[in-house]
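User: Show me an example of a complex going from sequences to structure tokens.

Assistant: Sure. Here are the input components:
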Amino acid sequence: MTDIVIRTQNITKKYKNNFALNNVSINIRKGDIYGLIGKNGAGKTTLLRIISGLSILNEGKLEIFGQTSESDLNSVRSRTGCIIESPNFYPYLSARKNLEYYRIQKGIPGKECVEKALNNVGLSEIGNKKFKNYSLGMKQRLGLALAIMGNPDLLILDEPINGLDPIGIVEFREILKKLNRERNTTIIISSHILGELSQLATTYGFIDNGRLLQEITSKEIEEKCRHHLLVKVNDTAKASVVIEKELGCDDYHVLNDNQIKIYAFIDTPEIVTQALIKNNIMVSTINQCGANLEDYFVDLIGGNQNA
Amino acid sequence: MLNYMKAELYRNFNRIYFYAFTASISFFAILSNLLVANQNIGLDKMMLMSIKMLSIPIYIVVMIVDMVTSEENKNLTIKNVLASGLSRNKMYLSKIIVSTILAVISAIIILTIFLVSSMMITGIGENFSSELLRDFTFRILSAVPLWIGTISLCTYIAFLIKNNTLFASIYVILFVSVKQIINILGYLVSDKFFYAKNMLISGQLEILSSDAAVSSTQSLTAVCIGLAYAVVFSILGVIYIRKKDIT
């Protein structure tokens, strides 16, 4: 049995002559928290809408839990929970009755799951209030309650923390982590708040102008973003010996183009320069490098635009 | 599909709209009996008068379809059920079935209130007979498929036109204008247009509510045309919704 939960192969979605998605292929494994990152209009919501069955793809193939036919996709979608765009409910029904409606519709046995979902998002005390009287944050919480009701195997969350207060964001993060840890729930989440996403995601998909620029694990990104000194020398082999023997550092990487990444002496680059020069190694440049997710994203998008 | 229909009934029974709708029409039914209380009119004549109004449900179903289908456009709630794996075909057909169930429940309540209040306020009347009751029931039952056909057509328009007011207006204009245009064409251009009128739901309801006795052939024609409308607009609706991006 495959451990891939979602696989898209060259998915294309066009609105008239504009490509909302252009040959997008992603792979989400069981237990992943997949962060989908992109600018406004990059195609994140369109991709999530196609996965959740709200938009029809023009080309390509969608596979969820190993299923590809329309009827089978509908069948496995009953194992998912979604927040797509803004959370929408019946305004004249209370939060509790709204959830009861969806409990009946999804065929989830036992009314207690409604209370459990309300409890999880901190709405049980105001569950009898009509949805139309809820604030944006409360609506967002109710959206999350619907998504997690019945313990789905897959959560599809589009900008789920919009409108949440700081405490709400922390609680939300904890709920997702708990679901992922205890039930191995797979989560695909898009957000503009990259700092928040970086605390959750295990894999990232960067999307721009309808194209997937990169799919990368959080470990790989950590490695790429790790602070270091980037030194350009005339002889990397000789420089490696100096770094190891003289500076006592084995945390470094030799790159192409006579460059070396050194993950030490970040605040004291002069020590490295001095040691290299002393051993007759020419140092062309030495720079302090490193980034966070936000910088990485901006670099990636910028790099793409400049290409 | 069954779960979705149950959920839809739960939603509609948990709001005031359905009760207010049924109560307000029931109120008019009682009021009409009160207005003729001292005019030597009994249940017999009231039944004959109500047969003349078989076309009225055409316009009343707009409220039911608005309640069940059209307001989903306003609240953007249809995406929640489709994202949970309900197929579009099943969702669409469920909407028609639920609207029909609610319309039937409402009609039974209204009709019962009308008949009972008429009996209590105006009395049975001199000409009341089992034959009259049978004819009344026969005409109503023949009209039911036509009303279901209107629900199917109305649901189709509700999915096509997102704006509630516009959808209701277009539906009403469609029913009023098409019949009138065909009537005018029948008088001005050719008699053959009157045959086309018989293909309309409103044309069939006109036959069922006429003073003349309704034959079993006429009844069967009405049933067939009503079911044809129901089937055709269900198919058109399913084709439309299958290709539609849901907002």
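The lines above are the inputs; the final block is the predicted structure for all two components together. The first helix of chain A runs from residue 44 to 51.
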